[in-house]
Design brief:
69% helix, mainly alpha, 221 residues, globular, 10 helices
Length: 221
């Protein structure tokens, strides 16, 4: 089982290193990591290139963990019927790591993993999505802070994983339940740590507020 954990982490990582936002910007002979916040995720793509680029990035990033989790199920649902759910979460973790830290990017800097986490929730436990998405949307609507909505959405993922796990909705065996909770905590902490600069700006009251108005390409927020 240890070997299988490593295998799916690697599968997830190589699914995660495909960055639609970065590819999109390179096709325009630019580099999204040098524009705006320097992040290759959906929010920065929205700000720099508009809603179409943001949508392409979002769909691509959401799809990556879903693909990794599907591959994991195809590989292990017969040989590891009791452990496949755990392996799927490892695949999701690997995707987020790959998305956040692709080996070919300078300083291994990719995105922040929020859309990837959302895609992982859809594939791993879709019942968590309505609450997580509602928390995110409501927070952004009320505060205009995508970073705050993202972090609260991550926390809701962690809380829901434990609640639904204890209620038996996750359909995992008792032997792997604690490990799943730990992985959910690790994923949540990873996302919050990736927002450490946003947290600093939120505390100082100078965090950028969300707007879908396209900026002139190449300007810095």
């Amino acid at each position: 089982m240890l070997v299988n954990r490593i295998i799916v982490l690697v599968i997830g990582y190589f699914c995660g290193i495909i960055l639609p936002g970065y590819i999109y910007s390179r096709l325009k002979h630019q580099d999204i990591t040098k524009l705006g916040s320097g992040n290759a995720g959906t929010t920065n793509m929205l700000r720099m290139y508009g809603w179409k680029a943001g949508l392409v990035t979002l769909l691509g990033d959401v799809s990556k963990p879903m693909l990794a989790i599907l591959i994991t199920w195809l590989l292990f649902h017969n040989s590891e019927p009791e452990g496949v759910r755990l392996l799927q979460l490892y695949a999701g973790l690997g995707t987020i790591i790959g998305h956040n830290h692709p080996f070919y990017m300078k300083h291994f800097k990719g995105g922040k993993g929020i859309a990837c986490t959302g895609g992982m929730m859809i594939a791993f436990c879709p019942v968590e999505v309505p609450i997580g998405l509602s928390v995110f949307i409501l927070t952004v609507v009320l505060t205009k802070y995508v970073s705050l909505g993202s972090m609260l959405g991550l926390i809701s993922f962690f809380v829901q994983t434990i609640v639904f796990g204890e209620l038996g909705i996750l359909n995992v065996t008792t032997v792997y339940k604690t490990e799943i909770y730990v992985l959910a905590g690790v994923i949540t902490l990873m996302g919050i740590v990736r927002h450490r600069e946003n947290i600093g700006r939120l505390l100082h009251g100078n965090e950028n507020k969300f707007s879908i108005k396209k900026k002139k390409e190449g300007t810095v927020s």
